[in-house]
Design a protein that fits this description.
Strand content: under 5%
Shape: flat
Helix content: over 70%
Structural class: mainly alpha
Largest sheet: none
Order of helices and strands: HHHH
Number of strands: 0
Length: about 110
C-alpha cells in the first residue's frame, strides 16, 4: 500500500516539473529567461548524455592480453564522440545527433 503513495508523489512531481513553467510564464510570451532556456537546453542535455555515456562505456584496461580490443574500442568511442559533436554542430537535430553515432558505434562493436 505504501508504494501507491510513492507513485502518487512521483506523478505529482513530474506533472509540476512539466507544467509549472508554462503556468508561471503563460502571460509573458517573450520572457528572457524562458527564451534563454529554450535556446540552450538542447546543448545542456546533450552534454549530460555524453558524460553519462562516457562514464558507462569506457572499457577497463585488461591485464590478460586483450589490449588491442581495448584500444580499438577507445578509438571507436572517440570517433563516434567526435561524430556526434560534428552532427550536432551541422544539423542541430537531436535525433540525428544521437542516432547516427549510436548506430555506428553499435556496428563497430559487433565487428571487433
Amino acid at each position: 500500500m505504501e508504494i501507491f503513495a510513492y507513485i502518487a508523489m512521483a506523478s505529482i512531481a513530474t506533472v509540476l516539473t512539466r507544467f509549472l513553467p508554462f503556468w508561471l510564464f503563460k502571460k509573458k510570451s517573450k520572457n528572457p529567461t524562458l527564451v534563454y532556456l529554450q535556446k540552450n537546453s538542447g546543448l545542456v542535455i546533450m552534454i549530460a548524455l555524453m558524460i553519462y555515456a562516457l562514464k558507462t562505456m569506457i572499457p577497463k584496461f585488461s591485464e590478460n592480453g586483450e589490449n588491442t580490443a581495448f584500444f580499438a574500442t577507445i578509438c571507436g568511442l572517440v570517433f563516434c564522440l567526435a561524430l556526434s559533436f560534428l552532427a550536432h554542430a551541422k544539423f542541430r537535430n537531436s535525433l540525428i545527433t544521437i542516432a547516427v553515432p549510436t548506430l555506428l558505434y553499435t556496428i563497430f562493436l559487433r565487428f571487433i
